[in-house]
Amino acid sequence: MLMDSKDNRKPQLDKNKSFLQSVGHALEGIKRLLLEERNFRIDLVVAIIVLTFAIVMKISINEWLWLFAAFFSVIGSEVLNTVVENVVDLIVGHHFDALAKRAKDVAAGGVLLSALFAVIIGMLIFVPRFIALLN
Ligand SMILES: Nc1ncnc2c1ncn2[C@@H]1O[C@H](COP(=O)(O)OP(=O)(O)OP(=O)(O)O)[C@@H](O)[C@H]1O
């Protein structure tokens, strides 16, 4: 099991005793995503750039909604991909397995599809504005 060598707390195996404890573990999960998932960090950098453009270009509330839908679609599929990778590695370890490959490839395909969705949303919102700026 993956454990932080600096973590001296007693390992927890039973259910969370409070809402705060649940939130603490969820934040630990987000920290793992930030520290260990390069693609997740790239998504965040791209999101910050896009959000900056959105603020500068004063996009409409509807466009903001689509932008957030695209953002959370990518983040959601990235999280699912990470879960699949970790669970598959936990089960098969470091050796080739056709089912492990299928599960990981399908999860990666989900990320690609949601990224495509985000690119389409981004283009629909920003391309007309860039063209207007050039004219
Ligand atoms: N145990 C395995 N058996 C067969 N193929 C595997 C296995 N582990 C990984 N692969 C193949 O390698 C690819 C990359 O593996 P993995 O998703 O673990 O790497 P990653 O660099 O973390 O990927 P990502 O870029 O999605 O974060 C998988 O999509 C799959 O095709």
Automatic annotation (TrEMBL):
The active site is at E78. The keyword ATP-binding applies. Keywords: ATP-binding, Cell membrane, Kinase, Lipid biosynthesis, Lipid metabolism, Magnesium, Membrane, Metal-binding, Nucleotide-binding, Phospholipid biosynthesis, Phospholipid metabolism, Transferase, Transmembrane, Transmembrane helix. Belongs to the bacterial diacylglycerol kinase family. Substrate binds at E78. GO terms for biological process: phospholipid biosynthetic process. It is found in: Cell membrane. Mn(2+), Zn(2+), Cd(2+) and Co(2+) support activity to lesser extents. One of its GO terms (molecular function) is kinase activity. It comes from the Bacteria. The chain crosses the membrane at residues 40-59, 105-127. This is Diacylglycerol kinase. It is a multi-pass membrane protein.
